[in-house]
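Example record for the data management plan.
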Amino acid sequence: MKRLFLEITALNHKFTFCLFVFAFALLSVPPTVAAQTLFGETIQTMKFRLEQDTSLLPQLAVRFAEGDTTLNINQLSLLYYGYAINAEHNAQSESRILDAASSLGRREKFEDAINLLDNFLEKNPGSLAALLERAYTSWLVNDSLGTVNGYKKYYQLMEVPMQSGTGANLKSPIVVSSVRDMELVMDKKGYFIKSQSLLNRNGHKIYMLTCATEAEPDAKKYFYFNVDLPLGNR
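Corresponding structural encoding:
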């Protein structure tokens, strides 16, 4: 009987120790982008919602493409981050397509550039860089309606990264779905990028940008961007 009691006691101690080790391990794991909150949701929550309702993102894309100005910040957030959340998202491939579209525009192959951008936006309507390039190309071919509608969509979606964080410190970085968007956000804020450094902080990939304004090019200001999504840290 005494031996049985000692064995049970030993098992209890082992179980307690295992729980302690498990809890310590959880606390020791660096938080990822999935733990961040964006407009009341985490990336993990967004991903779960999109997996549970596969029609949600396409429906938002259609409304956005039609110029629906009633989309709220949470819906726009799903549209902006939703495509980058997908495990099959290939940021490098998208970057090459955008470079190609820009190159076609510079060579005045506007029809080819527009077709390439339209195909791109069908697959990822939440791309700020593609929306901007499409609006600009519309302007180059004197398509006034396409220009106005294009820039409206661009600035409507720009509100997502602009409101995702202040960018003033590591505690409140601006969260982007594409590395290209850092320059677009800074331009919207009235700054240009002088230099950038990639940091790893608590499991997050953070770009620290050294920026300045045209009026005061020697006055440095620092901004922080969370680039977990475009760099594959989902």
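Summary line stored alongside the record: The radius of gyration is 23 Å.
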